[in-house]
């Protein structure tokens, strides 16, 4: 049973509700919160109308090195660093706010969400454990996720230099097969990877560069007010 103050218990319940709504699984809730497991399960069932899913959390960092997950993970973690370094948010507060901003960016860019909340939380754990780091792209100077053992090697990010088969997924092939009005020459002139990425490259590159570069002092106050006004 929780033995803290009533107000702190209420805050923990609100944090649990927000994490569950964002898609957090039971191991994440148990690690980040002080509520009992039975209390968390009751909250989960009440909010989701279902029992919490079972199974292990992701344990390998290799997933973050593939081209599309690397783009989304880099974007999320740079937003997280901005919230902790500039907005002075706490770790858990920055995690939830950064993930909400990431979801809003995916919606505004009309691109599929790749990074689940569990993956975002695991990404932070890998950074805190010293397994992952950020490296500057040799083309756009944006910082992207890399393994710590490769940090000393200059490299370009997956946005600037996508792999040859980038975007060759079932969903992408299905979307291209339904777009009968698109001229066939577009794919040939832009290349396979560029055609698959669509407008994602430019949007993600601009956003990543904006988050990673040093902010103009005239814009800092307005940007901080915008970030800190995001509802928790």
From TrEMBL:
A GO CC term attached to the entry: cytoplasm
InterPro entries to which the protein is assigned, alphabetical: FlhC
- Annotated Zn(2+) binding sites: 137, 140, 157, 160
Q: Does the keyword Transcription apply?
A: yes
The highest taxon in the source lineage is Bacteria
User: One MF term in GO for this entry?
Assistant: DNA binding
- Quaternary form? Heterohexamer composed of two FlhC and four FlhD subunits. Each FlhC binds a FlhD dimer, forming a heterotrimer, and a hexamer assembles by dimerization of two heterotrimers.
Protein name as annotated: Flagellar transcriptional regulator FlhC
Per the UniProt record, the source organism is Paraburkholderia guartelaensis
Instruction: Please spell out the taxonomic lineage of the organism that makes this protein.
Output: Bacteria, Pseudomonadati, Pseudomonadota, Betaproteobacteria, Burkholderiales
């Amino acid at each position: 049973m929780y033995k803290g103050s009533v107000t702190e218990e209420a805050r923990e319940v609100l944090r649990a509700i927000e994490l569950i709504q964002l898609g957090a699984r039971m191991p994440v809730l148990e690690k980040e919160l002080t509520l009992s497991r039975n209390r968390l399960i009751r909250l989960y069932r009440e909010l989701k109308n279902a029992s919490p899913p079972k199974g292990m959390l992701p344990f390998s960092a290799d997933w973050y090195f593939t081209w599309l997950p690397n783009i989304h993970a880099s974007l999320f973690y740079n937003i997280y660093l901005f919230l902790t370094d500039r907005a002075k948010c706490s770790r858990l507060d920055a995690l939830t706010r950064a993930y909400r901003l990431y979801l809003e960016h995916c919606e505004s860019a009309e691109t599929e969400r790749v990074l689940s909340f569990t993956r975002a939380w695991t990404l932070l754990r890998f950074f805190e454990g010293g397994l992952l780091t950020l490296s500057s792209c040799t083309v756009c100077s944006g910082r992207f996720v890399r393994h710590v053992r490769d940090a000393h090697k200059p490299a370009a990010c997956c946005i600037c230099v996508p792999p040859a088969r980038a975007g060759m997924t079932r969903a992408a092939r299905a979307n291209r097969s339904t777009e009968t009005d698109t001229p066939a020459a577009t794919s040939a002139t832009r290349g396979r990877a560029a055609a698959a990425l669509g407008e994602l490259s430019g949007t993600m590159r601009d956003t990543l560069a904006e988050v990673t570069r040093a902010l103009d002092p005239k814009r800092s106050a307005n940007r901080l007010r915008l970030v800190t006004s995001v509802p928790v």
